[in-house]
User: Fold this.
Amino acid sequence: MATQDNNRFQAIIAHAKEYGFVFPSSEIYDGLSAVYDYGPWGSELKKNIRDYWWKSMTQLHENIVGVDAAIFMHPTTWKASGHVDNFSDPMIDNKDSKKRYRVDHLIEAHVETLSKEEGNVLIAAMDKLLAAEDFAGLKKLIEDNKIKCSISGTANWTDVRQFNLMFKTEFGAVAAEVNEDENIVYLRPETAQGIFVNFLNVQKTARMKVPFGIAQTGKAFRNEIVARQFIFRMREFEQMEMQFFIRPGTEGDWYKYWKEARLQWHLSLGIPAEKYRYHDHVKLAHYAKEACDIEFEFPIGFKEVEGIHSRSDYDLSQHQVYSKKKLQYFDNDIDETTGKPYGNYVPYVIETSIGLDRMFLLILSQAYDEEVIPREDGAAETRTVLRIPAKLAPIKLAILPLTKKDGLPEIARAIMNDCREDFYCFYEEKDAIGKRYRRMDAIGTPFCITVDHQTKEDQTVTIRYRDTMQQERIAISDLRALVKEKIR
Ligand code: ATP
Assistant:
């Protein structure tokens, strides 16, 4: 990671805290590792991202509906999904520092110190060993490359072991004296399974016809071994997932469709295409047909923000086996090759899965700008501005009376009352106008208006645009429509 970018990342983290976006969880007790709280503007931005995704999936797709499943699920769900047996990462401990590393992260961090060619060779070797689950081979790879612990500086490693990432808790009031295992429930590590187990409920009640999708947003929990990098990797986070149920045999086309459609969703926010790239998976789960990540260039490098996975009928079939209930669909469309209906089958699934918190970090990373601007006295100053897309900005319009007297606050309040039903407005009369503008820049408010003495004469206000800092006069009567148009 270049120092410059690390500085930028640290500046974004500090800004997020100072301006009410993200706080460390339970900070007065020194925080909880990899758990974060969203502040006033952070929770608003997060909600806006969630709404934008939700609307694009459900309201704008006639064949996608939503669910809101519980976080707790029957424990057999996680047996069926494979999480109890397989949701683990190989990890290794340094015997001197006692620090635990995820093997792939340890090797990837080392790769950053190598030349591109050397790094590629090492990554290829690692991918091969991970795919073969060759733990002894992975340890040898770490030793052969003389990879050291960043804390102790030694290469005194334990063997590589698997570590399950699911959080367990006890269900109900029964204490441990009875069979402990019977009371164990897990905090869901992904939202997808709440969709799969409800497949038939949704299909029947919403009268859906294949192909159709089910969308869900909600919390997921993973006991990540290496949890750092701010909200990029958290132990409690939020996912936005959509499972698209299709006829077997059509998965190639639908996978292509969703791979492209999801990238277009990102680009629709006005983020330059060169900040994104696909990473096609080489190592696939045994049931997976194809899988890729959409990666974004964060200040810490290109990293996954979303996954698109062609999952075959694996999940529904597994739930059929474990629940002994049929999860099939009767397709009465005519198969042209046989001239008969397609009949009963377990649908195949294409999944799109994006982390809400990662998307939040993406928006902050893209929006954060320290811009040097000339001051009136000829000197230069730096303004920190969040160029958040207007439709996602926490506050859309700041309403600022120039002074606290002469009837200006009353006019400003009337404008506020007129607009607040349609979009989030913010009223402020304290401090010089320049200072108020800067505060609004720092939280990404795209439009500010100033109510001044001329307003009393001609019913106009000065509107100031965050990105260009340009100002113009507009009639109060045009204001609401103008802002609504810009945030559409
Ligand atoms: P990674 O390789 O980064 O651990 P993953 O491939 O395990 O991620 P998925 O299981 O495909 O991730 O989850 C889908 C999305 O959920 C990811 O693309 C990411 O945006 C988000 N996500 C996964 N784990 C976390 C986490 N610990 N903190 C924040 N977001 C996460």
Q: What stands out?
A: The first helix runs from residue 3 to 18. The mean pLDDT is 94. The chain is about 35% helix and 25% strand. The pocket of adenosine-5'-triphosphate is lined by residues 190, 222, 224, 233-234, 237, 239, 304-307, 353-355, 357-358 (CB under 6 Å).
